[in-house]
């Protein structure tokens, strides 16, 4: 493991004015949030508008102990408010109507627009009125299948304004989208004709049509489908074109955004919602079975998104903030939409999605050319590999938030792609989605952050609603690879297999003993599954499913999903640990490690390795990698198999699906649900290229 002694102090000059500027201040605020939650969150709540005020005696109630009764969490019960009102009207009333809420850029940098708070409010009201005219009322569900465009934000907030529950889905197949529409019984669907992803045309409306047919076969008819005509207004890649007449429209059900919205009224009275009324449902993949519809509610989520955004990014009123995550991921919900807008922030929204393992991005000659052609969609970074840094420079971004998978991919290019841009506006660099390996951390810190910026390695989940573990940028020293300390109101505990608390140094299951305002409240229409998935293994605790280690200084290091743990000859280690070591080799771009059953050792290590552009995968590399792991962790950890992986099976948010890699390791083709994969052809390719005798 990386040395726990390498500690990086926040830059004093840069963070003198930080919201939290010392460890002592963090501790003081943290203790208050734990000892007097009513006071801590009550003060924050005062900055928001409540139609019915919060009553002190019903501020916070919960039960986390399944042996004592049903699990529930309630914050500010009885109060009423409207999230959209607080995000938009409140900011307009505070004199920020002309402030830019979003700078938008399309896949092609020539396509851009911007939206002020006032204009955003108008657009939201118009679309809210359209939804109402289609019969949508408080509590109804609206399914959204859209790329990163401003209408996606408008749709979310229009739902919020009238109390409808949005459920966004990121580019799933027609089948999986249908499954989600059916699960939440969405009455309306909002989509676009299509979008360019680099050089590939994605016809989203056609996919929606297939989904709606599947839903109809199961007896559920989507009543209205609103379609944004997006392709007409953006620049196609060179030599490409799209004829908008080709978009299939079903009369009576389908309506174009541009036909319905402009004529709608630009004022719409907000629906006052109970604090615990549903805000949105977001599906997340479970390790088994159907996707889980994580449900977040109104008041607690709003406070938590706003507060984490303010403190974790040290957001100040004139900052420009950029989160690269898709709005359809929880990171996009909380940190591209709700958190920034609750703070009246100016954000950049770019329709540049991080792509999936296309080797062209590494500038190499593909070895598996056939497979390669089907995978490359054109936009690792379009039009060039420095798109991130171009955008940071152009908008003078102060806080930049992305995922380790993106960082690892970028660090393989020439440093010049970063250094030729002026990145001096940056102050906070965020990381989310998986543990960040120290090598990537150092690159991010040195090359992008010029050793001035603070890195916030934010650990959280769809279920937690917002950050739960992180260091605060101006206050808490950083350790590369450590998530750090709990955010305000969060009480992490490490448990051993028998449920006994591990105090002080040690490694175990990461659980939480009390809810914070942003924790999910249930799984949509399935409270039983909520209780069994998260609350039965260790009664009294919310179980994250992740493992973590506490070091001598109290820092928490998330070691990955608990099912990603390896037990080789009785030695417990995390896949992240081995992966991080493999990734340090100059010939390795990315690595994923899974456990394979072994007759003697119990389990052995099976490694998948993506090489860099200049390296070749051969016996020498394999031997070197085995030797390194052996040296760094111990002889027991020496990998049994190292397989070349030109790409890894990843979800659309960039997470490696180790469940599938475990199947490949044992040559079991029964891989189960692959609908959450960005590119399922990777799976076949990896089966076909398993090393002999593996
Ligand atoms: C926000 C998000 C949640 C899972 C989580 C954990 C992993 C996320 C992490 C991290 C280590 C971090 N994870 N952030 N692991 N360090 N900073 O990613 O939500 O898509 O629901 O995934 O991602 O394993 O349990 P979600």
Automatic annotation (TrEMBL):
<feature type="domain" description="Acetyl-coenzyme A synthetase N-terminal">
    <location>
        <begin position="26"/>
        <end position="86"/>
    </location>
</feature>
<feature type="domain" description="AMP-binding enzyme C-terminal">
    <location>
        <begin position="577"/>
        <end position="655"/>
    </location>
</feature>
<dbReference type="Pfam" id="PF16177">
    <property type="entry name" value="ACAS_N"/>
</dbReference>
<feature type="domain" description="AMP-dependent synthetase/ligase">
    <location>
        <begin position="94"/>
        <end position="351"/>
    </location>
</feature>
<dbReference type="InterPro" id="IPR045851">
    <property type="entry name" value="AMP-bd_C_sf"/>
</dbReference>
<dbReference type="InterPro" id="IPR000873">
    <property type="entry name" value="AMP-dep_synth/lig_dom"/>
</dbReference>
<dbReference type="InterPro" id="IPR025110">
    <property type="entry name" value="AMP-bd_C"/>
</dbReference>
<keyword id="KW-0436">Ligase</keyword>
<dbReference type="InterPro" id="IPR042099">
    <property type="entry name" value="ANL_N_sf"/>
</dbReference>
<keyword id="KW-0067">ATP-binding</keyword>
<dbReference type="GO" id="GO:0003987">
    <property type="term" value="F:acetate-CoA ligase activity"/>
</dbReference>
<dbReference type="InterPro" id="IPR020845">
    <property type="entry name" value="AMP-binding_CS"/>
</dbReference>
<dbReference type="Pfam" id="PF13193">
    <property type="entry name" value="AMP-binding_C"/>
</dbReference>
<dbReference type="GO" id="GO:0005524">
    <property type="term" value="F:ATP binding"/>
</dbReference>
<dbReference type="InterPro" id="IPR032387">
    <property type="entry name" value="ACAS_N"/>
</dbReference>
<dbReference type="Pfam" id="PF00501">
    <property type="entry name" value="AMP-binding"/>
</dbReference>
<protein>
    <recommendedName>
        <fullName>acetate--CoA ligase</fullName>
        <ecNumber>6.2.1.1</ecNumber>
    </recommendedName>
</protein>
<comment type="similarity">
    <text>Belongs to the ATP-dependent AMP-binding enzyme family.</text>
</comment>
<keyword id="KW-0547">Nucleotide-binding</keyword>
<dbReference type="GO" id="GO:0006085">
    <property type="term" value="P:acetyl-CoA biosynthetic process"/>
</dbReference>
<feature type="domain" description="AMP-dependent synthetase/ligase">
    <location>
        <begin position="375"/>
        <end position="521"/>
    </location>
</feature>
